[in-house]
Amino acid sequence: MEEEIVIASSSIDGGIGCWDLQTGTENLRYKSCASPPHGLTSVGRRFLASSQLQDAKAASGAILYWSWSRPQVEVKCFPEEPIKPLVANSEGTYLVGGGLSGNIYFWEVATGRLLKKWRAHYRAVTCLVFTDDDSLLVSGSEDGSVRVWPLLMIFDDHQMEQASQLYEHSFQEHTLRVTDIVTGYGGGNAIIISASEDRTCKVWSLSKGILLRNIVFPSIIDSITLDPGEHVFYAGGRDGKIHIGALSADSSSIKSHWLHIIGSLSSHSKTVTCLAYSTNGNVLLSGSEDGMIRVWDPKTHNMVRVFRHAKGPVSNIHVLKRPAYLNPRMLSNVQVSSRRHGLSLPPPLSKYINTMDEKVVGAVVNLQATCNNPLDASCTSSQVISCQIKELQQQGSAAAAEMEVEKLKLDSTQAMQMLQRWKKMYDNLHEFCVDELLEGDHVKSAN
Amino acid sequence: MAKTKGSSKKQQNRGIDFKKIKRKIGRKLPPPKNTTNTEIKSKAIVLPEQSVVSEKAGLALSKKGLTLKELLQHTSHHNAKVRKDALMGMKDLFLKHPEEIKLHRYAVIEKLRERISDDDKTVRENLYQLLKSVILPGCKEDNQGPVISLMMAYIFNAMTHLAIDIRLMAFKFFDLAVEYHPPLFFSYAEKILQNYEDILQKNQFYLEDRGKLKNVLAGLVRCLLLLPSSKEVNLLAKNVPEQKILQAFEHDVPTVFAEYSVIIKKLKNLVPVLVNCFQDFLPVIHDSLDAQSFDCMLNILRSLDHAVTFFIHGVQQGHPEPPPVDQSFSSVLLKKLLVVFPLSPMHHLSEKDDDRYVILNIAITEIFMHLSEWICPPAVLFEKFLTFVEYVLVEKSCSNVRSGKAVREKQISTLIPFIPKLVSRVIGNWKNRLLQAFTKTFQDCSPESSVKLACLAAIEEIIISQEDLLCTDVNDSGQFDYKITLVRELPKLLVLLGNRHPSSSKVVLHLLLRLGQRSLLYDDMQGLLKEFYSTDQDKGNICYGPFLRLARDSQELSICCLYYLSQLDSTLLKSIASCCLCQELDPFMLFRIIEVLHSTYKAGHIQISDHINFLITLASRYKVCPENIFPATDRDKKTSNHATFKSLTSVVCSCLSQMGDNSLVFVILEKVILEQISLKPPLDNSCAMLRILIALDSKPTRLSEQSICTLSNVLSAYLIDVAHCVPEYNDESTIHEQTRRYYLLPSFILFDRSYKLLNLVLNVMGSLINGRSSSLLSGDHIRYAKGHSSIINAIVSVLLWMQRDAKVQQILYLYKEEIDHISRSICSLQSSEEINVPIEERHIIKCAIDRLKTLTSSLYQ
């Protein structure tokens, strides 16, 4: 089982904390990060990126990169406007940010190009998530709408012109700001759950585009997370409780005042600000306004562990598989290699769409340094593949090498047989000599 | 019998002496005396018991004493009258015994269906009445399908009957069947439409009998209404399902358009027939329009309209339809139907007739509007219709005095949904003309009318759908002005609606929310919205708006609207605050308002000072009743809003502590709170103030010297009041303990944070006892405790409680002198005033001294 780490950031500058989930030891703390909710993301587990909270007057936003090995900020980007939510797709090829004005920005990580920018909402975007197959982007906004954007559509200029709208679904039922969205399994057929300041969570079907369930909570829900079996979902409320909402679970047997709520976990004195679920350890993590991260056993509803992060409210928690860079055995190795490469992180994100760039249609290049990580071996870049092909062409095919090996093996077995024979001959000779000598002695003594 | 006896006596009296035989001419001879009487007399044979009758005893009987079985037999009697009577008998039998229908419905229907094609008109009428009023409603809750389909074969048979009357009546029966079992239409659609086509083609009779034709057409309208249209799909999508299982299996609804191919084919044949039929009426139109033909025409138009919407729905669903056929279909409509528009009388008529023409014209307009979504009509025709629409909208609003208003309103509300599409489609001057007419209609119609509701839906579409993200084309200023006018109307409408039309209010609020989400609300609307919440009359009288009396969901919607105003001004907040302070408001709503306003503040739409003022106002003005909670009775507990206020305090505290940097907030807050607390609010409100103060303060305190001074006066009075209001009992229950603790805790925490405050408080208490401070300000702060002895008693209790608290006890050690001073003052008081103090008070003071002694002794240990 792979080890998992927890990363967390706060809305007040407390850096990005990083802990080992199993042992509870704290790793590096990455400095100077004050991220809004949903503003922290790990880009393909290669490095961390976070949008930064800014003064209301600030004209441009800020997105910072940290590499795993160093606590300092490595790359600073300044997008056109303040960005709040930030999300990368699972491979880490794209980075998507939602702006205060309701625009969504779509960057390519490797080159830093702004590929697309479109007007998505009437008001500020509050959260962004990808579905598990990375085909759909779901965004929530301050105006209470939840919209589903197929990436196919966004990059298809021809269809875009024809269609009256870009989004596949626009769910308008929330009356206030959308605070969090989670997506279930199943790509385009998944369910999504959205939480809002109107005290409700709503379950939507992506395939049908309809509201499946509306659950009213006793307080505003700021964060939600799904149980891996989609049996229930956990909703962190402003009242300091983590409510358990039923999805496929049977809620009829529980006589509750609130429909579809089957229980709650509580010991938080203050607002629960963010939640995460670790499938490996089967634990639930919750961040609170008092700066603590609590780890719960969802079965027994007991607290298992507490991480202390910062004084201010915890704004983001993510559970990740341990990246190779953080592995203590490899740490020195990586540092050396990164120094050797000289470019551990991609260039900063560009501010505007560069029309000149659009003509160059490059292949989607995955980031370098994948060779360092055996886990990422499956996704190799085109460059690496072309390199390998070249090498093979120069050195002959693998089959030839195999034949060579066979031949050598045969040689070695023959040599071994020869050796055996010589050995036997020597043994015989030795015995003969000894016998001769002994007999000679006998003869002598007899004489 | 008696009569004959009398007459025989007379004859005997007369004819004893003289026998005079008189004979009249032409009379028959009397029978000869020797004749034999051949008359046979018999009486009715009454059998006291017979098998058939005995069975009746437990059975349901009709008025005439017949059982259901007999009645059913009678229905096939050869005499029409008997058949009719049997039907009548069944009617009252079923009315008396409704359960009989359920038991025997199949048997009954199987027998009755034969009568559908009965030769006699009255029998058919009676059968219709029987089915309509008794049998079909009677078995409504059961599965009606099989019952009704039993009749279908006979109905179809009757539809093709030779006698025209029976045929027409059959359509009436069919109408009834579809009414009770709509899916029926789909299973027999082809046959039914064919029958309609046949009967409508034989038009030689309907000019004579329009009443019957009307019935036929009504049935057709009902059937066509069942066809899917795009409207229904929208409605379906809006329904929020509340299913138990999240991903439940769904029933297949016939949404696939291809299933309707048979119906399409038949309908295509039917439409030209209907159009011809309509044309046959045209001559009537030009001289006078009677009610019957008006109904027929209207039904024809409606059927056509349903057919058109059905086709369009099909096109939208992407049904593969050969285009040429469609062309011919629409050209039939264009050439034959739409060219006659507008229908107008030759000479001026009464208003009622005039209304009829308008209604017919509106129906034609509807067809045209639907059709124009599909094909592009010639511009001239389009112009003609636009003129008509504008005329109707404007003319209606001008002629409010005229009769037929209700009729007209209903008709207009059918036209209004087309306005948004028209506005987006038409070019040039028409845009403004239409918008103007629409605005006028909206402004002039009464708030509770259906037109208003239709207008609201249209406004939503005009403003919201067309300002969609991708169509950000430049709006010309004229249109923009109309939109502003329309939006401004909404808050006024909300106030006008009051709380009498909750559903309309909800629609308006929903629209406002939608507008707000798209940043289309204007800040200067707040003045109008204020009236919705509450307004300040002169001299502090508050006039509450409709907000307080609306249902919870509407209240929530209206609160959500506030979130989207770009800057909430203080006057609006004030009116909301006075709503919050009203006792009528549901506590749930109170907390919801605070929650939403706090989010609004976080989003930057409320200024910090306004928000602080709002929260402090709630904490300081909220009326806790009953004011004095002790002694608490059960009845009080139920009516008391004590718990609400407690949670209000904690909510306000948490809001304030979330506002940002606590020390900065504290600086703003300090002044406001001290100001409020010096005003001598009730105990609970003072407690809330102190709690807010400690929630934001830190250890050591951030209070300024001056505020500590002020606070010491206030606090000593507060403590004395607490001691007075929550007295100690010998049997200390935990509830009392808890309550006291709730009141004392904030002051203890303050002492812990600032020792000086405790010192000052002790000083003030000392001087209070001496009576010197009666001139001081502090004396005024005491609200409840009156009289010297009670004040002394209270001070001693406070000191004892302080001593009991571990932390404060530590601090008390530092101020032994002050306590000594207090005890000395009490002793001196006792000695000096011994003469004029009543005996009870003296006793109280004595007790107090005793209690104080235990305290001082423990302090000196």
Automatic annotation (TrEMBL), chain A:
Gene Ontology terms: cellular component: nuclear pre-replicative complex; rixosome complex
Top-rank lineage group of the source organism: Eukaryota
Gene3D superfamilies reported in the protein's UniProt record: YVTN repeat-like/Quinoprotein amine dehydrogenase (2.130.10.10)
Keywords, alphabetical: Repeat, WD repeat
Keyword Repeat: yes
Keyword Ribosomal protein: no
Extent of the WD repeats: 118-149, 265-306
InterPro entries: WD40/YVTN_repeat-like_dom_sf (IPR015943), WD40_PAC1 (IPR020472), WD40_repeat_dom_sf (IPR036322), WD40_rpt (IPR001680), WDR18/Ipi3/RID3 (IPR045227)
GO biological process annotation, one example: DNA-templated DNA replication
Protein name per the record: WD REPEAT-CONTAINING PROTEIN 18
Native organism: Salix purpurea
Automatic annotation (TrEMBL), chain B:
Cellular component GO terms held in the UniProt record: nucleus
PANTHER family attached to this UniProt entry: REGULATOR OF MICROTUBULE DYNAMICS PROTEIN (PTHR16056), TESTIS-EXPRESSED PROTEIN 10 (PTHR16056:SF2)
Principal location: nucleus
Subcellular location: Nucleus, Nucleolus; Nucleus, Nucleoplasm
Gene3D superfamilies membership: Leucine-rich Repeat Variant (1.25.10.10)
Designated name of the protein: Pre-rRNA-processing protein Ipi1 N-terminal domain-containing protein
InterPro entries in the record: ARM-like (IPR011989), ARM-type_fold (IPR016024), Ipi1_N (IPR024679), TPR_TEX10 (IPR057949)
Tagged with keyword rRNA-binding: no
Species this protein is from: Salix purpurea (Purple osier willow)
A Pfam family it matches: TPR_TEX10
Coiled-coil boundaries: none
Superkingdom as given in the UniProt entry: Eukaryota
Domain named Pre-rRNA-processing protein Ipi1 N-terminal: residues: 146-204
Stretch list, region Disordered: 1-37
Keywords: Nucleus
Sequence ranges assigned to domain TEX10-like TPR repeats in this UniProt record: 487-617
Family designation: Belongs to the IPI1/TEX10 family.
Basic residues bias spans: 1-12
